[in-house]
Design goal:
mainly alpha, 2 helices, globular
Length: 52
């Protein structure tokens, strides 16, 4: 991953920690990636209901 991707991932994790609003999280995720990462070859989202 690039530094831009790492920084975007950190922002996305912070957004997830702040809210349980899944549609908002998904929109913010896409917005962050589009704004922060110059080139995206592949993207995947893994969702789990597992709670530690």
């Amino acid at each position: 991953m690039s530094i831009a991707t790492d920084l975007a991932a950190i922002k996305i994790v912070a957004d997830i920690e702040k809210t349980n609003d899944q549609p908002k999280i998904l929109k913010n995720t896409v917005d962050t990636l589009v704004e922060s990462v110059q080139y995206i070859h592949y993207a995947a989202l893994h969702v789990s209901n597992h709670q530690p």
